[in-house]
Write a sequence for this structure.
């Protein structure tokens, strides 16, 4: 296996590229790893246990969906190497799954599961039976108290007990929790020889990097953070594609325990809980050919959107300036969401500076920003510290800045504070967006010149 070789003097440049470059300036998506959760007699996963369930086993459902997903990915993206971790009913330790994904040098890790939850116990009367009971009385006999038991018969109900089905249904998407970034960092550093620094196609020289050096650990930590954001972006696409089918899309969550493979893979990774195996409607859906194929197609559509955005990001950035002068620009998929929160802002210069913050409590809001349909900020986590960029208004046309919510943060909806300056005045604009609606600012240029 070839060692990664990066010059010492080049490290600083690479470091700057990692920090300053767009979240999607990564290599092409060449390999996708798909994992069917659970497997084998040792680990069946969740099972259908409510009364009159199909007695489904999660391991069988995940394998069926995975095989359809692998086939659909290969069909729609023939240039991508799609690698399943298992194709039969076998047990794999989660560490083995992560090892395989890293060994395959995956660029994405898709983990397929089915959800469940604790079932409540119900009871109902199914008949009656006769029961003998005894009435206790006492009688004095020669100054002694004697106990007398008198039998009598009563009719009592007979009950049977059963497990009640879950009422919750739908598909959810999970990413590794932020506090688990250290595990992601370990996976990157453990990968050592497989770790690749993004250098915008600048050639390396013959000096071998020490994976345990402080510099390399810093770079790896940036990558771990990036994987978190990329995972969140892909998860958002999956949630949107599932919602398009009319199925209940439950959004994106960060599970604190139980999804070790997401932390231990050296790539963006998501886990898809396709449905609730102990909900009758979901169980039938997950076992049906139609449901399995629909999920496979929805996930594939999301992966294609992610792949297109990853691979076209640099091109989009380079074309931003030329697109400003075009009357018509093709509409990105993200702008297909309706815009319900629109602010009109009159400015006195065609050159505007925008500073964007998380509005209110910092809750991990992640946004993308489009200006005149061109992507200028991708998958940015908002904080109390400003993220700044400049836009140049195009004379004679409507200039619109659109805020796209990549997630809802921990406190929905996604909110942003924008401080806008035009060289003369300063404006504060608050926008609110969610996974169904965008928000925007429309600029009206009013020159201050006589």
């Amino acid at each position: 296996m070839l060692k990664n070789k990066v010059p010492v003097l080049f490290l600083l440049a690479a470091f700057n590229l990692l920090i300053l470059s767009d979240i999607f300036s990564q290599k092409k998506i060449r390999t996708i790893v798909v994992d069917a959760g659970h497997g084998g007699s040792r680990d069946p996963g969740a099972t259908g246990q409510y009364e009159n369930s199909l007695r489904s086993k999660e391991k069988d459902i995940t394998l069926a969906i995975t095989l359809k997903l692998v086939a659909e990915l290969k069909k729609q993206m023939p240039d991508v190497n799609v690698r399943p971790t298992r194709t039969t009913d076998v047990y794999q330790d989660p560490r083995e799954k992560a090892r395989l994904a890293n060994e395959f040098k995956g660029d994405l890790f898709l983990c397929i599961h089915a959800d469940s939850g604790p079932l409540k116990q119900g009871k109902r009367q199914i008949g009656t039976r006769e029961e003998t009971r005894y009435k206790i009385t006492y009688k004095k006999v020669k100054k002694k108290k004697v106990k007398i038991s008198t039998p009598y018969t009563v009719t009592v109900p007979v009950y049977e007990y059963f497990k009640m089905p879950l009422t919750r249904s739908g598909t959810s998407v999970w990413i590794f929790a932020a506090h688990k970034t250290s595990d992601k960092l370990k996976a990157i550093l453990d990968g050592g020889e497989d770790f690749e620094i993004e250098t915008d196609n600048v050639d390396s020289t013959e000096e071998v990097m020490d994976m345990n050096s402080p510099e390399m650990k810093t770079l790896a930590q940036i990558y771990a953070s990036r994987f978190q954001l990329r995972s969140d972006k892909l998860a958002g696409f999956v949630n949107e594609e599932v919602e398009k089918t009319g199925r209940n899309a439950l959004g994106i969550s960060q599970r604190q325990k139980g999804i070790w493979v997401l932390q231990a893979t050296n790539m963006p990774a998501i886990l898809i809980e396709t449905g609730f195996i102990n909900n009758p409607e979901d169980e039938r859906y997950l076992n049906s050919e139609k449901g399995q194929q629909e999920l496979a197609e929805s996930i594939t559509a999301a992966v294609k959107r992610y792949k297109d955005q990853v691979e076209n990001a640099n091109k989009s950035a380079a074309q931003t300036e030329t697109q400003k002068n075009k009357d018509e620009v093709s509409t990105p998929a993200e702008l297909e969401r309706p815009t319900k929160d629109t602010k009109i802002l009159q400015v006195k210069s065609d050159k505007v500076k925008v500073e964007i913050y998380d509005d209110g409590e910092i809750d991990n809001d992640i946004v993308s920003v489009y200006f005149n349909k061109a992507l200028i900020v991708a998958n940015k986590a908002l904080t109390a510290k400003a993220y700044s960029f400049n836009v140049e208004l195009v004379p004679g046309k409507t200039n619109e800045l659109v805020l796209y919510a990549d997630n809802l943060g921990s406190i929905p909806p996604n909110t942003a504070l924008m401080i806008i300056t035009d060289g003369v005045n300063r404006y504060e604009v608050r926008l609110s967006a969610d996974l169904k609606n965008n928000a925007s600012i429309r600029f009206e240029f009013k020159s201050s010149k006589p």
Notes: The chain has three domains: 10-118+167-310, 121-163, 325-445. The longest strand covers residues 121-141. The chain is about 30% helix and 35% strand.
